[in-house]
Structure formats: structure tokens, C-alpha cells
Write a structure and sequence with these properties.
Order of helices and strands: EEHHHHHE
Strand content: 25-35%
Number of helices: 5
Structural class: alpha+beta
Radius of gyration: 16 Å
Number of strands: 3
Largest sheet: 3 strands, antiparallel
Strand order of the largest sheet: 1-2-3
Shape: globular
Length: about 90
């Protein structure tokens, strides 16, 4: 899942971008599961699982997050990660 939050610092002209990464594809690979398997086991819509797998989802319901964590016996931090990236904003 990729979500972007930009904060502009006028003094240093830096733009900080926070990106939420979803590790569903990695967890599925480790458990040798396909999208259809995850959808069936969790009761989640196949499209929801596909969007999370491809990291194109814009949001995730807490219920879906709970079901995925229970399926993979993991914590939220194992499934989602915030990555920071700094880019210089040329002005």
C-alpha cells in the first residue's frame, strides 16, 4: 500500500515523503499462498487482496488488517511499514 504525505520545509527546501509499504506479497510467498487462497481464508474481496498485493491500495479497513494479521500470525508492523524518503525540492 502506498500513501504519500508531503511536508514542505521552506527554509531548507526539502520535501519529506512518507510511504506506507505493504508486505503482503512477501508474506504470501513465504506461506506459498495465492491471492485466491488469501481471499478464501480471510473472507476478503479478491480485489482488496489484489490491491494490497500490488501495493496500489489507497486505504485498508481495520477489519481487513486484522484478518490478514490473524491469517499470517503476524503483527501490523510485519504487514505494513512506513518508509521515509527525502528529496530536494529545487527552487
Amino acid at each position: 500500500m502506498q500513501a504519500f504525505f508531503a511536508i514542505q520545509d521552506d527554509k531548507k527546501h526539502l520535501q519529506e515523503i512518507l510511504m506506507v509499504r505493504c508486505h503482503l506479497a512477501r508474506l504470501m510467498g513465504e506461506h506459498k499462498m495465492k491471492i485466491v487462497d488469501v481471499a478464501r481464508e480471510t473472507g476478503l474481496n479478491r480485489n482488496t487482496v489484489t490491491l494490497l498485493y500490488k501495493e496500489t491500495a489507497q486505504r485498508i479497513e481495520l477489519d481487513a488488517l486484522d484478518k490478514l494479521c490473524k491469517l499470517f500470525n503476524c503483527k501490523v508492523g510485519d504487514l505494513l511499514e512506513i518508509q521515509e524518503d527525502h528529496e530536494k525540492n529545487e527552487k
